Amino acid sequence: MKLIKTLALAAALSLAPAAWHAAPETPAMAEPAPGEILMANVNGLVCDFCAQSIRKIVGKDDAVQKVHVDLSKGQVRVDLKPGKSLDDAALEKLIRKAGYSLVSVDRNVAK
Question: What burial letters (b/e) apply to 2-32, b meaning 16+ CB within 10 Å?
Fold first, then answer.
């Protein structure tokens, strides 16, 4: 009799919707508002070591969310945290600290 009850329970559970064993639903996390994006043209970027140095130094700034280095174009994309800013002089100081020279900075807002 116990075997029949166990088999019946197993059959019922296998036919039941999978929701009973799914992870509890969590409210959808709102994506943070995009911050400002800086595109810096930098002289001297030629290798991955250069990129690593830029990412390490620039990425330490409190306003910086993410740093991407494009060696082929000599550009550094700096994504700022929402509500934060980084002026050209501060960015130039960070680039120089990493051992490179800043040519120009273009600013735009992420969409």
Answer: eeeeeeeeeeeeeeeeeeeeeeeeeeeeeee
